[in-house]
Amino acid sequence: MSDNAFKYSKRIADILLAEKLETMGAVLIEGPKACGKTTTAEQQAQSIIYMDDPTSIQQNLHLAETDVKRLLQGNNPRLIDEWQIAPQIWDAVRFEADHRKADGLFILTGSAVPADNSKIQHTGAGRFAWLTMRPMTLWESDESSGEVSLKSLFTHPEKINGESSLQLEDIAYVICRGGWPKSVYKKNKATALKQVYEYFEAITRSDISRVDGVERNEFRAKRLMRSYARLQGAMTSIQTIVEDMRTNEVSNISDETIASYIKALKKIFVIEDMPAWNPNLRSKTAIRTSDTRYFVDPSLAVAALGLGPNDLINDLNTMGLLFETLCVRDLRVYAEANYGNVFHYRDKNGLECDAVVHLRNGNYGLIEIKLGGEKLIDEGVANLINLENKLDTTKMKKPSFKMVLTAVGQYAYMRTDGVMVVPIGCLKD
Length: 429
Fold this sequence. Notes:
The radius of gyration is 22 Å and the shape is globular. The strands form three sheets. It has a seven-stranded mixed beta sheet with strand order 7-12-13-11-10-9-8, sandwiched between helices. Strands 2-3-4-1-5 form a five-stranded parallel beta sheet, sandwiched between helices. It is built from 15 helices and 14 strands. It has two domains: about 5-130, Rossmann fold (3-Layer(aba) Sandwich), CATH 3.40.50; about 150-429, no CATH class. Strand 2, helix 3 (about 55-65) and strand 3 (about 80) form a beta-alpha-beta unit. The two termini are about 25 Å apart. It is of the alpha/beta class. Helix 9 (about 220-230) packs across helix 12. The protein has helices at about 10-20, 35-40, 55-65, 90-100, 150-155, 170-175, 180-185, 190-210, 220-230, 240-245, 255-265, 300-305, 310-315, 315-335, 375-390; strands spanning about 25-30, 45-50, 80, 105-110, 130, 150, 160-165, 340-345, 350-360, 365-370, 400-405, 410-415, 420-425, 425-429.
């Protein structure tokens, strides 16, 4: 498969974009750089303007200030790529969508939140639909068989059946390579693994400063991302991150400084923390409400730590943490395709649930993430059953399913206690 084959690959976002274009005047596609936003939009656009094209960027910025409607002229849907460099476009698109009273007029793509929101006067509610794109899932990259559908787990969990061909070495590789389209279809694995290191360098050298024009220290950004990588999947305070960084930081750093770095990384969609789930419980149990720390893709944590597949194989504790990040990435994509979100649960007694997929209709599934092996699976099962027993099902629905999501294991199956075990290599939306 050629390096350009990703342009024609299956993406869940293709379907979601088509649906949203049928219902709203404009669709905003957001996500990290190099995850495939522009390619996805190009396939459904009828005309395109690339706002950051070096040959026309100054002209585009001038038109945004003096005659913004000129930038909107063209067959619809019209794609305006990297729109955020001229925030005036937002209100102009909103106005056009409002007055034309038609759907599917514009697609906006952006790999950053606008640095200057003062030029945006309207929220876009009622005119815009939002679509978040992330790096490719294992199903989208043809590494999952897709025999177990998340959608089916909410309707017919008893019919679970699937087989995965992924071994531990394969999982280590896809964690390190990530789901970046350009890397996914590289024939040479060594070259594919190098891609994310180049992305990491771009983030820390320029992107983290360019997003809002605030000059930030490259090496401090690298130390922050390294600390974040060590704390993947944890409900860690900024103060704890600062203390972790200080072991390698010569100069004194404040919580406020690191908070600004984290905010910048969120603006370029490098960091995507997970909110806490707050269910109805039978007893008064304090639920921890802090977000859980995650990168948008596990490969970023690998690059920050300077690791490779063999390092993960030789350190299964670290691999387990980064495998959780991979699963969260895929679950977020699959959940969005089913009109759902992914949350994390932890209470004061230490009872955790790695992921709760909660749909718009109130249905939800409880998921524990483990590398595999009977002991770890049994631990995950015990957590899921303990949490289910705490839920007050007189005030909320029972969970649609309980699942241990694993790295290794050939088959997906239902245990006699009602908990299913599913390898990530057979899951899809």
